[in-house]
Design goal:
This protein is mostly helical. The chain has 24 helices and no strands. The longest helix has 35 residues.
Length: 551
């Protein structure tokens, strides 16, 4: 009885994640019951909804209440938006949905920022208290810090999903889901719930009403995706993190510039293997249950410029920002009222983040100068407007990751990289070159630029990022380079291996996939067992959580 009790209770140190055995035991039990229910769509959807809520409870504790709150409110608001004929009331209902979703997201992701800024600017003495942690400690014997509000796992992902649903219903792109249970299943589907990909209603909701169908080809493809994801995450990403990246970023000043640079390039590979590995597994797990999730990565380090990189990286978020932020601002056409509202909101964040009210007259002056330029120099109006839209999208994308300067700088640098390339390609003598050296240079330069921006994405603090740059720039350790290469040869070999595999031609990778899919089942099982054995040999003692769980 005690074992069963523990099985159904939340334990913060034993979440259900793809890299632990408890998830695969959970998934096996889910599939066993699913095999009896899959023929009846309504019963299937209800079952998977309940299973998904339980999965989220086991992963995030009482925060499943937030998930249910978002589900219920957006389901009924979606119905009201669809049935409302009055344009103004329709907009007010949409605004209600956006306010609720963004309000919950802001509370959990920007609570400390708002509290600390208020105390600094207005000399108040507010304190952060998390009542959900208090209730969890009392009910389940957990030991959460009451003064520390941890954001619910994956809150940004399911919030963006429910927001896109309300917006699509408002635009008339989709009709409301028929039942609350079906909508709950769409929002909470457990393979992609906590780290994406962000699934659009138009892509997923039609699948709720289709009959289950899984061919032998799709079965092999699902297993291929799962094994591929496990290799990326556990064999490559976690190995690099444990043996180099985490220790260097925790204390950059204690390591040479070479070690800091190796950790920085290693982190670019780690974050890709970690995040794309999760989505690969999610796609495979969903496919075994007959559901298709969108591809979220397309070999991003094969990009030849920053704009192309963002079309290949975290595709579901990039397209979400484009469709629901960049285009409503005016996109490449012009600026809109939404552009200036977003700009004002962002600048308020900057003022609060810096806690310097002197920035208000500075920003006012810049606004005035921009107005004069666009008013009296129409030739540059379009260029200024579209670049503002682009920069605002990247800056707000940075703030989506967190409310501190490191994410603002990271988003801003990526925005500058995209804008700079737009101007450079007009004058570059090599833009249309097909020479292999030109191609290699573009790949290397783009990869290095993206890696450089991640100094602020991964850095523990602004001080840590400064120390890392100082070590690379002034204390590289050239005299100790042979000894360091010898000491880190396994890590460097893994880094080179990961990048070489990533840069292999897509046609070769497709042949690997097709070879595995068309093997007899006993061979697929043998390959899977070998992969699991190799991964098991590389496991570290400590749990390595997926990086994007925190977002």
């Amino acid at each position: 009885m005690e074992y069963l009790r523990q099985l159904f209770l939340f334990h913060e140190n034993h979440p259900l994640i793809f890299t632990r055995l408890n998830f695969w035991v959970f998934f096996a039990v889910v599939l066993l019951a699913y095999s009896w229910l899959y023929r009846k769509n309504g019963l299937r959807n209800a079952y998977l909804f309940l299973v998904s809520v339980f999965f989220y409870y086991k992963t995030g504790g009482l925060f499943f209440v937030i998930l249910l709150f978002s589900t219920v409110t957006d389901y009924y608001l979606g119905q009201l938006i669809y049935n409302q004929q009055h344009p103004l009331r329709k907009k007010l209902l949409l605004a209600t949905s956006m306010t609720l979703n963004l309000g919950v997201l802001a509370f959990f992701k920007y609570d400390y920022f708002i509290t600390e800024t208020s105390n600094a600017l207005f000399h108040t003495h507010f304190e952060v208290v998390t009542h959900s942690a208090k209730w969890s400690n009392a009910l389940f014997g957990t030991h959460f810090d009451l003064a520390k509000i941890l954001p619910p796992v994956g809150i940004s992902f399911f919030t963006f999903q429910t927001m896109s649903y309300a917006l699509d219903v408002y635009r008339g792109d989709v009709k409301p889901v028929r039942s609350l249970v079906d909508f709950g299943f769409y929002v909470s589907f457990f393979p992609q719930l906590v780290a994406g990909p962000i699934v659009r209603a138009a892509e997923f909701i039609p699948q709720l009403y289709k009959k289950y169908n899984l061919t032998s080809y799709e079965f092999g493809l699902a297993f291929f995706w799962i094994l591929k994801g496990l290799i990326k995450k556990m064999l490559i990403g976690d190995y690099l993190a444990v043996n180099l990246i985490d220790r260097v970023f925790a204390n950059p000043a204690s390591y040479s510039g070479f070690e800091n640079l190796a950790a920085l390039y290693g982190y670019s590979l780690q974050v890709y293997c970690d995040f794309s590995g999760y989505t690969d597994i999610a796609i495979g797990v969903a496919l075994l249950m007959g559901f298709y999730l969108p591809k979220n990565f397309n070999s991003p380090y094969k990009a030849k410029n920053t704009g192309e990189f963002w079309r290949r990286w975290h595709i579901s978020l990039s397209t979400w920002l484009k469709d629901y932020l960049y285009i409503p601002m005016g996109g490449s056409r012009n600026a809109s009222i939404f552009t200036y509202i977003s700009l004002v909101v962002f600048l308020i964040f900057v003022v609060l983040l810096s806690q310097k009210l002197i920035l208000i007259p500075i920003f006012t002056f810049v606004f005035g100068l921009m107005w004069i330029l666009t008013r009296y120099f129409p030739g540059i109006k379009l260029s200024i407007s579209t670049n503002i839209n682009l920069m605002m999208t990247m800056l707000l994308g940075g703030l989506w990751h967190g409310s501190n300067w490191t994410f603002v700088i990271w988003g801003g640098l990526n925005g500058l990289g995209i804008i700079a390339y737009k101007f450079w390609r007009k004058i570059s003598p090599y833009e249309n070159s097909t020479h292999w050296l030109t191609h290699v240079w573009k790949l290397f330069f783009t990869f290095s630029f993206i890696t450089f921006t991640r100094i602020w994405f991964r850095g523990e603090s602004m001080q840590g990022t400064r120390e890392l740059l100082q070590q690379i720039g002034g204390h590289f350790g050239w005299d100790l380079l042979p000894q360091m290469i010898q000491s880190y040869w396994k890590v460097l070999a893994m880094l080179v291996f990961g990048m070489v595999v990533h840069w292999l031609p897509e046609s070769l990778k497709n042949r690997w996939r097709e070879w595995f899919i068309h093997r007899p089942m006993y061979q697929q099982i043998g390959v899977s067992a070998l992969v699991v054995f190799v991964i098991y040999q590389s496991l570290s003692a400590n749990l390595q959580p997926f990086i994007y769980f925190q977002f």
